[in-house]
Amino acid sequence: MKRQRNNRKHFTAMTGLAIMILLAACSGSGKPAAGSGGETAQPAKAAGEKVNGGSVVVIVPQDPDYLDPHLAVAAGTSEMMFNVYEGLLKPNEKGELYPAIAKSYEIAPDGLTYTFKLREGVKFHTGNAVTAEDVKYSYERLAGQETGKPLSPAFASVQSIEAPDAATVVIKLKENNASFLTSLTASVIPKGYQDSNKKPVGTGPFQFVEYLPGQRLVIEKNKNYYVQDVPSLDKIEFRIIPDQEAALAALKSGEADIFPRIGTEKLDGLGPEFQTVSAPQNLVQLMTYNIARKPFDDIRVRQAINYAVDRDEIIKGVALGKGTKLGSNMSPIMSRYYLDGLQDTYKYSTEKAKSLLAEAGYKDGFSATLSVPSNYQFHVDTAQVIAQQLGKVGIKLKIEPVEWAVWLDRVYKGRDYDLTIIGLDGKLDPNDILNKYASDSKNNFFNYKSPEFDQALKQGLTELDPNKRAEAYKQAQTILAKEAAAVYIMDPNLNVALKKTLSGYKQYPLYVQDMSSVYWTR
């Protein structure tokens, strides 16, 4: 990666706004999160000489929702397609932004105009050179310039995008947007390209080969990649195995080489031919309720459920202690914005839970369905513990395992559910983490509405002072906790098992598998 690091020297001097955002992105780099046991993510290393080439099989638990990067919402999709697509900027394993398709940029003093110079020699997987018109097309599509409906809320503040020449892109905003820089990691695709959902074309270190639903997604080395000697591997197969036991069997038998998100309880059973890494991952596991549906529209019911859930028991029993207790939708990895103490807002108390339920008119409790994506055993196990805990206060839960595609369609998009458990992946910027709770957000599958929260979120988005911005997001977290928007459980450690002869694997504060740095040794 030597050439990449050297290219960072070519960045144009940035304004205070850009520096502030970079600091925000770096907030958790290399530091153990509070309550995590002190684990710090380190690149996997293997003794021996580097071998160029070869293939690797990586286990993933779900199918992608869309291959088109501008339509995809599932974290599991970006987990794989991170290797195929790139934006003007790109994050590294510390959460820092560095140049990708862009080589330099300037931000106007008023924070409203961004001017990018493109890197020479960047090509799409088709072999065509990337031009400013491709960037313009991609980001106008995300901003909904033609439809009036942005595909990404991060681009809703875009007023115009211009390409004065083949190597220059100028983006003008309607208002200050302190998180906009991180939005420019969004994928660039060829101008006018309409087949991204079947034959993805990007600029990343690997290019798309095939996708067989329920079986695998295969990518291969981009021989024209602009970073010298990257990647090392020739081919990556993401093997889709929803069942953890079947995934473990595939790893042990040699059918697979890397098992991300392996259950903590399975780590001790691995043989000497494997190595493991474990660290907090900037993810929020939560149980959310459909607030538009009774009885969850009553804050007293939501608070009662929070009091009835013993998070410590879940962390100890399900994560085997490898998790950081949360009180709102933010991981301690985002240390600049994280508000410590909220994890104690609802200390476990069946007495308080019963009292609040009685006050809300549910003295004898009620029945509800807890829908859980069946491909995530961690969430299924959590659901079983929570069902037992809520049973103690009279709430009878029916656990409904649903396939991933059903969860996305019925729960996430259709908002047709009582309760669900899911992990919300972390982002580089706090606004991108919290904006799904905005009253008008299309991703607000909780049906949460709070003018007070909306105001705090807007202040954080437009505030240029870094300290005031941090306070706005801390206020937003406080509101989510106070109004019991969900039951925030933990940031579970990301456990990864891989062959001992593999080296270079990196963990990110994002839900991605970066295969560009991985290589075999002998």
From TrEMBL:
Please tell me whether the keyword Signal is annotated for this protein: yes
Topology in the lipid bilayer is annotated as: Lipid-anchor
The principal location of this protein is membrane
Sorted keywords for this record are: Signal, Transport
Q: Specify the species.
A: Paenibacillus ehimensis
Protein family membership: Belongs to the bacterial solute-binding protein 5 family.
Question: What's the protein name?
Answer: ABC transporter substrate-binding protein
Query: Which residue numbers delimit the Solute-binding protein family domain?
Result: 96-444
Keyword Cytoplasm carried by entry:
no
Print the organism lineage. Bacteria, Bacillati, Bacillota, Bacilli, Bacillales
Identify the PANTHER family for this entry: OLIGOPEPTIDE-BINDING PROTEIN APPA (PTHR30290:SF9), PERIPLASMIC BINDING COMPONENT OF ABC TRANSPORTER (PTHR30290)
